[in-house]
Each structure stands twice: as structure tokens, then as C-alpha cells.
Amino acid sequence: MKKIYVKEEYCMGCRLCEIHCLVAHSKSKKIIKAYKEEFPRVLPRLIVEEKGPISFALQCRHCEEAPCIEACLTGAMGRDKKSGAVTCDEDRCVGCWMCIMVCPFGVILRDEREKKVATKCDLCPDEDIPVCVAKCPNEALVYEEE
Amino acid sequence: MRKSRNYLIVGNSVAAIAAIEAIREVDKTVPITVISQEPYRAYSRSLVSHFLEGKVTIEKVFYRKKDFYQRNKVQTILGKRVIAIKPKEKKIVLEDRKRIPYTKLLLTCGSKPILPSVKGIEKKDVFTFTTWDEVKRLAKTIKKAKSAVVIGGGMIGLKAAEGLKSLGLKVTIVEQAFQILPAILDKDGSKIIHRHLKEKGIRLIINDTVLEIRGKGKKVERVILGKSGEVDCDLVVVAIGVTPNLDLVKGTALKAKRGVLVDRFMQTSVKEVYAAGDVVEAYDFLYGRKRPIPVWPLAFQQGRVAGSNMAGKRMEYRGGLILNSIEVFGLPIITAGLSAEEKGYEILTKSDPKKKVYKKIVLRKGQIIGAILVGDIDRAGIIVGLIKDRLDVTNFKDEILEENFGYIYVPKEFRAKMVLPLEVR
């Protein structure tokens, strides 16, 4: 399947991926509205990490043997049979945080705006290319077949 | 292909479901039958406390969608007990004496709650908290009850206490050890939880035991403690732990100690009989030996390994470690591995009692072998990943408990291997 890969030597730490991820997962999908009007603000589904000169964006790896699916108490974490993506059915999630405990990349986030749920990268199912990849100005994120 | 092939699975929780999914990835046609004494399709045991509190609907307690068995072509025999297994004859016996033959058998009989041998334990208003039926029975009793005693301050006891409290009962937890969660938390970590529980209105009695449950006839009216006198209550929940359910295994050729012994392929000492989940003793790679670890993710992995091997695709169980995630009245707690250790290892801690944050890692020869995260659990999985991968963390150990700790601290060679496959690099 196609996955997002990280080329950290190209990452500038500009965080445009984070902004566009947030907007893409907002209600309005409009940047100004998403930041100025939608509260509590929706979470970006990726994490930008920085240490000295190194930086990179990290999001769900959509693992083949996914620890989050194994650990999920409710069956909310599953796999999309067609795309192979690891999906989180936030409606079923009860916020037990088992997935957070086992994700070796630490890319599942606690969304505590309403009912507590786990949230993560969904590979932007309505887009040809996930927005973080599409909007990266330096091709530090790529979307390719494994 | 032999026509007579059929797989039997005894038990219908996570290990069984994972096994079914694994079998069907390899073999779409072999007949599978699941037998469970509980009359429900697979449900999430941990969600029964959410159900009690009314936080989830009945439909959400179920672990898979309604059509799961149909889609996977699984025949179900639910609400019937298996009373014996006959490995020599390759048959199991149901409670109605009906015998069902199998070519391969998977035992996922789970664990059963340990009941202390105290007077009054048989009373009607004494409950365990591990099956849906028990919790449904409890839900009915609660309507007429004002106060409850929970025996045991472990995971299940805490969830029971939270559920009962949220429904308006006065709740007392009685824990034998000097702290709650004695198996997975240390003293400093537990102190925060103790305070949190008190703030939420739970009465906590530590270092004491229930000697007797008293009341007229079948009723519960009070418990008698060893040291702290009596506590009035209308019901008792017993949650002092679980033990592998070996009822079916006793007297058979299947080797068992505390749990059923299995090899790396989840096969028991008898060929064609597999076992997975809480009922087994599987390899704990931190202890370096087999022992029962009754936790959900390992039951899933073991079920998956068993199912795959039954269907003929070799898969190895690499061993597990104890892992727990629990939220107690909104305070999240995650522990992994040898988390309660306080001496003999290098231990790093960070604590902010005001914010109810406590973090700790236990190191052995440069590797993390245990962790506690209270209050701040974000990205806990990175630490658990470091335990599993047995990475030497000496160079960045002081960063691990810091707020900005992330994947970036993991050595670059390892990181690159994980996030960037060769073809794309």
C-alpha cells in the first residue's frame, strides 16, 4: 500500500504539514475559520518533532502487524480492507488509551474536546495525496508504495 | 483436502476472535465452531464497567460487528458449557453430553476471578466484576443499594469502585497491601492515586483484609475487617485478581502449571491442541520465563499466533510483557513491564504531585525494563517500544521522562529503519 515516508534531512521544521493537517480535519476545511472560529480547536493528526537542527513530521505508519489494533479493547481500531490503512472508528472508541500505550511511534493522540477518543492519521481518504505530503514545500514527506 | 477437517474454539473473547481472523487470512473454508458458556457474541470485558456507568450502549460493548461470525463462516454454540475435553478421542463434551469431534482445538477459556475463602462469600449480593452477566446482576442490585465495599485495589477493583461511585454509592476499597495497584505501581506512584481517590470520595483502607461478610440470611449488611473494625455496606465486589481457568484441563494430558503450558506456536503439550489468552502461561521476555499475563493485547497476539499455526501458516509468539492502561476518575495511568521495582535497578523518576504527574523508568544494563506513567501518558508507546526492542537507552535516558521526549531521541539508524524503507530512501 501507499504510505507516507519521512525524509528528515529535507525537513525544515516549518510545520506547514501540521497546519494543513489541522485544516483538513476541521469542520470548515478553511484555514482562517479553523483557527479563528472552531473551538476547541481540532487536533492535527501528526506530530512535528524538533531537536537542534533535526526535525521531522511523524504520523501513523499504518503498520502491517499493528499493535494498536491488537491492543484496542473496543474494536475501534481496525484496518480498511481496501486501502490497508489502519483506521480508528472514533464513535466506538472509549478512550482507554491502550493504543497510546503500544504505538511505538507515539503517533496516536488523545482528543479530549468532547468524549475522550484516540485520534490519528487517516491518510486523508478523500484526497489523492495526504495534505501533509501535498503541502510540504521541500518534499520531506513522500507518499509512495512500500 | 480432507473433508473432515474442523476447528473447534472453546471460549469467545479476544483470543478466539483474533484466532478466527488469523485462520481466515490463510484458510477461507475450514469449518470453525466457537463454543462459549456465555450467551453473547464476543464482547469486551473491560467495557462492562463503562456499561455499568451507562457510558456506552449495549451495542458498543460488543467487540466485533454483528455479522462477524457469518462473514467469517463461523458456527457458534453460545450459552452452553463445555464440561470435558477428550484429547485422545479428539472430542469435546458439552453440558448436554453431546460430543463434538475436532481435528484441531483451541482453548481460550480465559481466567476466573479468585475468591477469598471468607465467611459469607457465597451471599447473593457478593459480586465479581469480570463477566457481563455479573455486571448486569450488579446493576440491578445497585438500584436498591446505598453503599459498597470493593475487596481488592487492583485494576478491576478500581474500575468497579469508579462505576459504583458514579452511580451514587458510598464506596470503600479494602486492599491487603500498603497501596493500591500493588503489582504494577510503586509507593510514590500510588500515593498520587490514593489522594486522587480520596478527592473523588472513595474511602480507601489499606493494609487490611476482609475476614467476614455479614448480613441477615442471603443479604449483605457489613464486612468485618482484620484491623479496622467493620464497614457497613449493601453489596460487596470481589476483585483480588484472576487465575487461569483450568477447569477443562485438569485430569487431561495437557501440561499445565498455573496456566496451560504452550510452546512458541501456542501449541499445548498435546498435538493439535492449542491455547491462547488468559488461560496460558506464555513467555514473558522480561522475566525470561513463562507465566500467566492476563492482559488484552497479549491475548490478541497469542490468539492470532495460534490461529495462524492451526491454519498452517507458521507464526511464532515472540513473548510478551505485562502492559496496563487504566483511567481512574479521569486520571490516566499506564504501566509496562517490571514497573513496581524500587530496588536493585537503576531507576529514574520525575514527579509533580500537584499536577498528579508521576513518571518512572526502570533500567537494567542500559535497557528499559519497566515504566510507570501517571497523569501524563502521551507517547507512552515509544517507551514501551524501547522496552520491546531492547534498545540501549544510555545515551538519552535522561530525556525519556521529559515533556518533549519523542521519537527523535531514538537513535537515527533505528529510526530510519522504521519510518523510511530502503526503496524510498
Task: Give structural notes.
The complex is a heterodimer of chains A (146) and B (425). Chain A is of the alpha+beta class and 146 residues long. Chain A has two domains: 1-59 and 124-146, 2-Layer Sandwich (Alpha-Beta Plaits); 66-120, Alpha-Beta Plaits (2-Layer Sandwich). Chain A has five helices and eight strands. In chain A, the strands form four sheets. Chain A has a two-stranded antiparallel sheet. A two-stranded antiparallel ribbon of chain A has the order 2-3. Chain B is globular and about 65 Å long. Chain B has helices spanning 14-26, 48-52, 58-61, 68-71, 132-142, 155-166, 187-199, 296-310, 380-389, 412-419, and strands at residues 7-10, 32-36, 74-78, 82-86, 91-94, 99-101, 104-107, 111-113, 126-127, 147-151, 170-175, 203-206, 210-214, 222-225, 230-232, 235-238, 242-244, 260-261, 273-275, 280-284, 289-291, 323-328, 331-337, 346-352, 357-364, 367-374. Helices cover 22% and strands 28% of the residues of chain B. Chain B folds into three domains: 7-110 and 244-310, 3-Layer(bba) Sandwich (FAD/NAD(P)-binding domain), CATH 3.50.50; 126-240, FAD/NAD(P)-binding domain, CATH 3.50.50; 330-419, Enolase-like, domain 1. Chain B has 425 residues and is α/β, with parallel strands linked by helices. At the A-B interface, strand 2, strand 3, helix 3 and helix 4 of A face helix 8, strand 22, strand 23 and helix 9 of B.
Number of strands of chain B: 26
By oligomeric state, this entry counts as: heterodimer
Structural class of chain A: alpha+beta
Identify the overall geometry of chain B.
Answer: globular
Termini Cα gap of chain B: 45 Å
Provide the domain count of chain A: 2
Average predicted confidence as pLDDT of chain B:
95
Task: Please compute the radius of gyration of chain B using only Cα atoms.
Answer: 23 Å
Pattern of helices and strands of chain A: EHHEEHEEHEEHE
Q: Main sheet of chain B, how many strands, which sense, barrel?
A: 5 strands, parallel
CATH-defined superfamily of the largest domain in chain B: FAD/NAD(P)-binding domain
